[in-house]
Structure formats: structure tokens, C-alpha cells
Amino acid sequence: MQMPLPSAKVLAEKALIVKRLRAFLPRDSVIDDPAETRAYECDALSAYRCAPLAVVLPRTTAEVAACLRLCHQMGVPVVPRGAGTSLAGGSMPSADAVVLGLARMNRVLEVDYANRFIRVEAGRTNLSVTGAIEGEGWFYAPDPSSQLACAIAGNIGMNSGGAHCLKYGVTTNNLLGVTLVTMQGEVVEIGGPCCDAGGLDLLGVVCGSEGQLGVVTEATLRILRQPEGARPVLIGFSSNEVAGACVADIIRAGILPVAIEFMDRPCIEATEAFCHAGYPDCEALLIVECEGSPAEIAEQLGLIRQIATGHDPVEFREAQSPEEAKRIWLGRKSAFGAMGQKGDYMCLDGTIPVSALPMVLRRIGEISREFGLEVGNVFHAGDGNMHPLIIYNANVPGQQELCERMGAEILKLCVEVGGCLTGEHGVGIEKRDLMTVQFAPADLEAQMRVKDVFDPKWLLNAAKVFPLDVSASRRG
Amino acid sequence: MKVESEKALVEAVRGATRPLRIVGGGTRPVGALAGDPLQVAISGISLYEPGALTLIAGAGTPLSEIEAAVAAEGQRLPFEPARWGAVLGAAGESTIGGVVAANVSGPRRVQAGACRDSLIGLRFVDGTGAVVKNGGRVMKNVTGYDLVKLMAGSWGTLGVLSEVAFKLLPAAPAQATLVMDVPLTEAAKVLAAALGSQFDVSGAGWLPGVGAIVRIEGLEQSVTYRAGRLCDVLAAWAPKVMREDGAGLWRDLAEVTPFHGRPGDLWRFSVKPSDGPQVAARLGGQAVLDWGGGLVWALVAPGTDARRLAAPYAGHATCLRGAFAAFEPEAAPVAALSRGLRARFDPKGLFNPGKMG
Ligand SMILES: Cc1cc2nc3c(=O)[nH]c(=O)nc-3n(C[C@H](O)[C@H](O)[C@H](O)COP(=O)(O)OP(=O)(O)OC[C@H]3O[C@@H](n4cnc5c(N)ncnc54)[C@H](O)[C@@H]3O)c2cc1C
Ligand SMILES: Cc1cc2nc3c(=O)[nH]c(=O)nc-3n(C[C@H](O)[C@H](O)[C@H](O)COP(=O)(O)OP(=O)(O)OC[C@H]3O[C@@H](n4cnc5c(N)ncnc54)[C@H](O)[C@@H]3O)c2cc1C
């Protein structure tokens, strides 16, 4: 992965930069010892690593603003970081960068049930947002699988999704406002608990901007009442095509499940071997989850059974008890771990129109044979967000490159059928160089203009998202 | 000038020597109306896949054409776009581009989100005449910056939309409306109790002469069940349940029917829902509340500075009809960013000059 050469001037000024940071930050908020900065050298895309110049862990918005002001003045690149679970290299540093971590800003600032929002410091983990309100029967809807670890800051950076976004939307649909500190150190309040912010929708463009427009220090989030209950059903099919057709029919029938998850044969076999969830021996299976009171769930599942029966399922298994529900989800939830047993894996994240599902799965099978690497598919079928997992062996020279080339083939296919490179993980460095597959020069130019406005010197996370040659003239 | 294709639109923008006033259907005459009219008549549905809940259409497509097409498949635009023509006294048919440019969202916003939340892709022509596409036709997409949201609600000041793509939802087979005869002052409390319940409320407003109204939609048995449970939650306000909206209460709310043909200046306040009744009262009480109280439509005597009258309030006000700036001035740092964006997207200042500040 190509990264820009670090600035020699910044590297040479390290001691001065650290000294000036220490002038206004407590001692334990500035890390410059190479033994300790190593802990920040990568995110969950751990194939790529680079220790930063220094790490700062401020405790207040004012401290964040002071750090950014100083870095701006001294021309030091900054990489914002939440919990570092990005799968795209979004929070990977460069050697001349100060990593600005939000880990110490994790307080709940305000809970307002009457107006249905919570305001938190952005370093708070996703799950602990719900943790703060579940006692009263409320929850925060976006639920990435990494929710135990990942921070709201990173969720906003990547506009993250989750298993239940078919019904509740992704981060951007549940974000009401942010406190954003620009690279110049200016504190900007965008949006808030009112329905409309008025003016241009800056909040919409900040969410998903991968730490390139500013540092989010606080967030106002929409909260919802927990439903009365939820229950999954597992449906096995004799082919991917039939499973795909069943998904389309469920959607057309006007039923809106909270989740429709899809697994193909390689993935089913791997999870069976790994966790013995008792899945049927079939080509494809769907897990469909419905919410509400017992009677409401029964009504929805009744309709789903009717539709599924028309597709001649190999198996239709309704969870009759919480234990059965758990077993149905067990395989799905262990899928990544199960595939991991087979070797190293790369997780793709392209989205396709659901109508293209059978064709795309067939093509992925062909690509897999062509490259000689195994692939399993487990994904959110309701919204077409695929997660092909390619198995490779990092210790075999050349396999990682082979795997990356194969991944690129699959992502190009997603774009070709009308989809996109990434549905929830973000571009980061991982998909940066594929952006020209999806976007024309004018499309990228329009996006880069937004960064020009927020961060004229291109100091914030600048080597991400846009292909390096495309952003070269701006990065100076 | 009227353009019927993206190509013609590009030519019109490249050839423009004077500012343009971007016109869709001309039904939302809000804010400064300066410039030569450029009517976007790029019309027609180019893709509709009911099984994938997606639709793509030219920005000049009449809203009614889109609504009819999706209704025929038992689907709908989730955000319940309302027509403002009647309340603003403007004739004409709304276009989908105008709906997007104004981020028009009706009562269902409290459940299904605003127009911007259903918008998944678009194409537009910027002030240099370049065609830009963003988003696409899939529901989950974080590839690059989300200019889709930025364009929604930009009132034609960043570029001229040529095409828009939406995520749709199935239309609900059944609905129920709970009506409670409560005064304006108590409305937000009632609506908060409903919206804070487990019963998935899809509309919560207050209409003069009617009272608080709360809507539930979904499958038949589910609606019956939830309406019953919600009646228990709201028992203190003695709700009456209507299974049909024969009177068109939800249309009245979306289109602000109580104010049709009435004299006076028309304002829209976006505030914290619990502040709604108070703001409405300070404005004289001629009000309609939507979004649980978070949206206040108010009719005031001509020439009244409603912003001053309502102060102090957290939120913002739009003057839809009256001699005041349509959009409220933004806090300095936000205004600077917005100005910067407009200058980058429309460097010659061609589009709807002065509309948003
Ligand atoms: C096992 C596993 C499962 C996962 N499952 C999912 C899933 O189901 N759905 C999903 O969407 N993702 C998933 N992810 C990806 C990842 O967890 C998400 O992208 C998450 O939102 C990242 O949060 P973070 O706090 O770790 O952010 P980081 O990795 O620290 O940062 C992510 C991005 O946000 C930026 N950023 C961080 N903090 C700020 C800030 N304060 N201001 C502005 N920008 C900032 C960073 O610069 C970076 O570009 C998964 C990852 C793993 C490892
Ligand atoms: C040819 C013509 C000439 C007119 N001349 C006059 C006149 O001289 N004086 C007068 O008072 N009224 C005139 N009108 C009425 C006029 O249309 C409205 O008063 C006013 O322009 C508001 O309509 P609108 O387009 O804003 O409404 P809508 O179509 O509802 O649009 C709402 C908002 O969206 C923007 N918008 C609409 N479509 C797009 C798009 N595709 N891309 C980007 N932004 C968009 C608009 O600029 C506006 O800000 C005229 C109408 C037409 C069709």
C-alpha cells in the first residue's frame, strides 16, 4: 500500500511539537515514546502498520481544539481515532502524524427521554450508549458487530451500519448533531435535538467523512424504545437463486423484518464445523428476524412462511424458545470466527442491488475458482450489503497480494451491477485506489472541494479515501 | 428557460451569464426569488424495482407521477412528502427535484426519517457546468463523502439536480389514528408519551379544532394490538380510535390545511419537541404542530417578526410567507462553512442567489 512520504520537517520537529503539546496537555495525555506509540500503529486492517509521531488523548473539547490549532499552525498531519476497529485502514497513522484519540472522552452528557435523544462524548463505545439507557427500556439502534469495542466517533467517521439497519437505518439516520472541531481549532456546533438544523445539511456530509473534515468530540443521538420482543426464523434453500428470490418476495409482500441475513454453502459448512449450530445441509439459508409482541411476530412469521413455502424450502425452522433463537443466531454470529479457522481472511463490504444477488454470487464463485482462493458469503441480504470472506495464507509469499487482487475483482463486479465499493466499512486506504472504478473525475472533485472548505491545508487524515494521484496537488 | 435533458441543463448552465432561479414545479416559492427562471423538466421514471424497493427518476418528474407508480405496487415514499402549494398560495405541480431541494418531509418523519434519509443517490450539475454523481441505487453506501445529504435541503444553491434515487417502503395495509381532545399547551406531553412508547408511532401532531393525533401503521392485527396498548398508555387523555382516516387528518397536518386561504404571514419553527407548545403560544397560538411538537407552523399578523416574538428558543425559523429573510442566519462558524461550500460548488454565484444567505 502506497503512502505519501512523511514530511521531513515535521519528523525533525518532533521534540518541539511534543513539548508544545505538553504545554497545555497533562503529562499522561501525550505519548511519544516509540514503545508506546506502537500500540497505535494500525487498526483492524492489521496488514498495514505505521507508528505515528505521537499520540494525544485529550479529555475535553477545548483540549482537542488546542491540539488541532497547534498542529495546524506547525503543519502537522492529524489522524483522528476512536477505538481503532476500522477494517479499512481509516485510523492507520502515518509516521509524521499525531494520532488524536478520543478514548478518554466517554461521558454521557445528557439523556432526554421526552425528546428521545442522548448526548455523549464521542469516545464512548457504541454498546455503552445503549448500556446507559437500557435500564429505562431504550436503545441506540445502529449495532455494528464490533459494538463492544468501537466508539461513536468511529461510527460517525465511517457511517457504520449493523445487523438491524434494514429497519432502523445506519449511523447517519440516527445522528442528530455533533460538536466538530475543525483542523484550524474552531469549535462548530452542527445540528442538535431539533428536527431540522436549518441551512445546509453539514451533519449529513460530516457523517461518513472518515475523519477528514474535523474531529467529532460530542454527539447527539436518536434513541428508541426497545420493542417488546424479537424472534428469528431460519429458512434453508436448494440454491442461491431461490434464496435471493425469496428475499425479494418478502420485501415485496410489505413485511419489514428487522434483519434478513444470508449465508451460502461454504459459510454454512464452515460454521457447522466450528460451532455445530445444527444448520441444515443446503446451498443457502436465510435468517429473518421479526419484532414486536408475540402476536405481531406470529403474524409476520405466518406471512413469511407462506412466501417461503412457495420457494420449496429445504427447511423452515421457527424459534419456539429463546434457546432456539440463540441457536439460530449462533452460526451467523460465529461466521467470521468460523471462516477464520480456515486461515487468514479478508472481509469485503460491497453493496449490490438485491435483484443482482444470484448473478453476483455465481460470479464470485467463478472468480474464486479463477484465483484459487476460497470464499464464503455471509451478509445483510435485505439491503444488498455483501460480506464475501476470502480465505488466504499470509505466510505464503504473494497470497496477500493475490487475495487483494481477487477482492478488487469482486468489488469491481459490485460496481458493475449498479452497486458500490463499500456499504458500511468505509474506503480508508483499503479501497482508496478503487475509487476511480466507481467515480468519474468530476465526482471526486466535488467531494474533494468539501474537504478544501473544512480543511484547506489537507492535514486531517489526508492520505485516505481519495487515490493519492487524484489528491496529490491538494496535499501539497 | 426550460430544460428537458441533463445535456440541455449542462448547456444552460455553461451558457449562463446571469444568475438563474432554479424552478421545479414552482410550488414552494420560499426565500429570495432572484434570477432568470431555469425550469427543470427532466422528467420520467428511469428505473423502478419493487423487489429492491428502489426508484430512480428525473428531477423534473411530477411528484404525483412517482406516487402513483409506487402506489400501484403497494409501496410509497417513506417520508410522506407534502404539497405546500395550497398553503403558500402557489399553483402548479411539485416536482421530485423540488421536494429534494427543500428536503420536504411530512408527519412520518418521526418514524421513517426525512426526505434526505430515503434519498440514496443523485446527479446534479454544478456551477461550472460539470455533471456530478453521488450515492447510487443501493441502500447502504459509504463510498466517499455523502453529498446526497448535502444536496437535500440545499434549495438549489449548490447545483441543479437532474436525477434522484430513493429507497421506498411497503405501504402499510392498515392504520389507526388516536385522537385526543387536548389543548395546544398539553400537546407535547401527550405526543411524547406516544412517541416514547414501544408501539412504533408513525405520526404525532396537533391540529386546531381536533386536538392531538397519533398514528399507527402496519399489518392488520399488529395495528389493532398496538392501538389498544397505546390507548392504555394515553388513557389519561381519553383517546378515540379511528381505523380509517376518512376526514384526511394526516393530509390536513402535512399540508397545513387549517391555514389554507387564511391571511397573515406564515412561519415554520423547528425546535425541540417539548418546546413546541411554548413557542406556539408565544406566537399567538394560531398553530399546527407536527413531529411530536418539534415542528411548529404558525400564522401571525402581517409584518410580525416571529423570530423576535418567539425568542428565546433553541432551533430555527423559516419565513415561508412574509417580508422577512426566509432562512434564519446561522452561527458564524457554520455560516462560514456553508458559504465556503457554496463558493466552491457555484463559484460564479449563478444558482438562486441570496436564497440561503
Ligand atoms: C470484528 C469486527 C466487526 C465489525 N463489524 C462491523 C459492522 O457490523 N458494521 C460496520 O459498519 N462496521 C463494522 N466493523 C468496522 C468498525 O468497527 C467500524 O468502522 C467502527 O465504526 C469503527 O469505530 P472505531 O471507533 O473503532 O473507529 P476508528 O477505527 O478509530 O476510526 C474509524 C474512522 O473514523 C475516523 N474517526 C475516529 N474518531 C473520529 C473523530 N473523533 N472525529 C472524526 N473522525 C473520527 C477515523 O479517522 C477513521 O477514519 C467491524 C470491525 C471489526 C474489527
Ligand atoms: C417558467 C416559470 C417562470 C416563473 N416566473 C415567476 C416570476 O417571474 N415571479 C414569481 O414570483 N414566480 C414565478 N414563477 C413561479 C415560481 O416557480 C415560483 O414562485 C418559485 O420559483 C418557486 O418555485 P420553486 O421552483 O422554488 O418550487 P419548487 O419546484 O417546489 O422548488 C423548491 C426549491 O427547490 C429548488 N429546486 C427545484 N427544482 C430543483 C432542481 N431540479 N435542482 C435544484 N434545485 C431545485 C428551487 O430552486 C427551490 O429552491 C415562475 C414559474 C415558472 C415555471
UniProtKB/TrEMBL annotation, chain A:
Q: By its UniProt entry, which Pfam families does this protein fall under? A: FAD-oxidase_C, FAD_binding_4
Among the GO molecular function terms of this UniProt record, one is: FAD binding
What cofactor(s) does the depicted protein rely on? FAD
FAD-binding PCMH-type domain ranges (all copies): 48-226
PROSITE patterns documented for this protein: FAD_PCMH (PS51387)
Give UniProt keywords alphabetically: FAD, Flavoprotein, Oxidoreductase
Protein name from the UniProt record: Glycolate oxidase
UniProtKB/TrEMBL annotation, chain B:
GO MF: catalytic activity; FAD binding
Database matches in InterPro entries? FAD-bd_PCMH (IPR016166), FAD-bd_PCMH-like_sf (IPR036318), FAD-bd_PCMH_sub2 (IPR016169), FAD-linked_Oxase-like_C (IPR016164), Oxid_FAD_bind_N (IPR006094)
A Pfam family of this chain? FAD_binding_4
Under PROSITE patterns, the record lists:
FAD_PCMH
Superkingdom is Bacteria
SUPFAM superfamilies in the cross-refs: FAD-binding/transporter-associated domain-like, FAD-linked oxidases, C-terminal domain
Residue span(s) of domain FAD-binding PCMH-type: 1-171
Flavoprotein as a keyword of this entry, yes or no, is: yes
List keywords of the entry alphabetically.
FAD, Flavoprotein
PANTHER family on file:
D-LACTATE DEHYDROGENASE, GLYCOLATE OXIDASE SUBUNIT GLCE
- Protein name listed in UniProt: Glycolate oxidase FAD binding subunit
Q: What's the source species for this entry?
A: Rhodobacter viridis
